[in-house]
Amino acid sequence: MEPSHVNDWDNFKVKHIKSSVSDTRSLYESYLTFSKLFDELPKQELVRRGWMSSIDDLSSMVPLLQDIHSDKDNAFFRKSDTSNIALCVAWKSRVSTLAKIAVANQEIGGFHGIDKNCLKELAQLSIDVSSIVSLPTILAKKGIILVYEKTLPRMKLDGVVFALDSGHPVIGISFRFPRLDNFWFTLMHELAHINLHKDILNATIFDDLEINNIEVAEKMANRLAKYSFVEKHLWRNCAGKYDISDGTVIEFSNKIGIHPAIVAGMLQKELNKFQMFRKIVDEVDVRREVFGND
User: What is the mean pLDDT of the chain?
Assistant: First the structure.
């Protein structure tokens, strides 16, 4: 069945698409994909957030069409159309738009790479909860664009990482979960991709960290993120693996210089015991830290 917006093609504002696009048929096929995804979007929510002026406002979603057309060979778009794919792609498109605005406003420095020592230094900022608010400015000086954009309802995505045509890496964080450890591991996972995989960031990497991803690139990013928080030999001997108490977790966290919620979250995952250390991991609501009570 053809999507309901196919008949709108003649009226679609093609002039907004980059002038280098000459293959009309290819653009039309991208538009068909766009139409299917558009039908799946929670348009009332997008209007409430100011992403669209009305539920029929196709023109405000032109950046989504541009993303689909530029990334149409990405396997993500070849999956069967689901509401979650539509949510993820629309959300990423919003992140991309905000990132381009930041570059246009000259708010971002030049990007010259990020090394493993820098990742460790950034991880230690976690000890101060308020550092979350200043991280976009800190990373902007390194040429990395960090965008905070709240998750859409029912969207199964923690973060994305990709590169703009300018060469600037972009990280989007969705705050799907309000836990501090989830925020920090998502951020460090995406930074690890920038360190390890900067040559493939022309294609967006979508990260749902709840799933056990078996791809080599994802395993590498997980490993680097983990050992940016705590060196391997120290983690191997972490007392919290044997003495399951809040005090032990806090003592170990103070020793290595990161927030206790991160150590608690890592232990929960490794031991597969997610009821442990709930007081520690639930103490900070990162959504409230960033967005207030909105």
Answer: 87
Residue ranges of the domains in the chain?
1-81, 82-289
Rounded Cα–Cα distance for residues 90 and 16 (Å): 17
Span 26-31, average pLDDT: 84
pLDDT band at 215 (very low <50, low <70, confident <90, very high): confident
Residue type for position 63: P
- Burial of 78 by CB count in 10 Å (0-12 exposed, 13-18 middle, 19+ buried)? exposed
| CA–CA dist 143, 168 (Å, integer) | 6
Q: For residue 108, what are the contacts with CB-CB under 8 A and spacing of at least 6?
A: 102, 140, 143, 144, 145, 168
What is the residue-wise DSSP string for the chain?
Answer: ---TTGGGGGGS-GGGS-TT---HHHHHHHHHHHHHHHHHS-HHHHHHHTS-SSTT--GGGHHHHHHHHHTTTSHHHHSPP-HHHHHHHHHHHHHHHHHHHHHHTT-S-------HHHHHHHHGGGGSTTHHHHHHHHHHTTT-EEEE-PPPTT----EEEEE-TTS-EEEEE--SS--HHHHHHHHHHHHHHHHHHGGGTTS-EEE-TTS----HHHHHHHHHHHHHHS-HHHHHT-GGGTS--HHHHHHHHHHHTS-HHHHHHHHHHHHT-TTTTHHHHTS--HHHHHHTT-
Instruction: Tell me the pLDDT tens digit for each residue of 126-136.
Output: 999 999 999 99
Beta bridge partners of 171: 146, 161
Give me 133's structure tokens: 């608010």
Query: Rounded to 5 degrees, what are φ and ψ at 98?
Result: -65, -35
What is the reported pLDDT for 82?
Answer: 61
Radius of gyration of the CA atoms of the chain, in A? 20
